[in-house]
Amino acid sequence: MAEDANNDIKAMSFEQALEALEKIVEDLERGDVPLDQSIKIYERGEALKKHCDTLLKAAEDKVEKIRLSREGQPVGGEPLDEA
Q: Quick one: pLDDT at residue 14?
């Protein structure tokens, strides 16, 4: 059930997911959210964190593929865009 409510997360960019996660943290830290809603938004926060981790790992993997020549120029790397 929680997974259905979080389907939109898969379409989010890293920046969008991070912003949504920060909003959840602010809401939870304020402490004025009812317990049942706190649980739901905490679960959404976990899904957002996982999505951010996945996107960040993918970006790190792409950067690691770039190699530099002795002159400091990128050589032999794969394109950063998969388009």
A: 95
Contacts of 42 (CB under 8 A, 6+ apart): 24, 28
Domain 2-75 sits in CATH at 1.10.287
Instruction: Determine the average pLDDT of the residues in 43-64.
Output: 92
Check residue 57 and give its pLDDT.
Answer: 94
Mean predicted lDDT score pLDDT of the chain: 84
Q: What is the 3-state secondary structure (H, E, C) of 21-72?
A: HHHHHHHHHHCCCCHHHHHHHHHHHHHHHHHHHHHHHHHHHHHHCCEECCCC
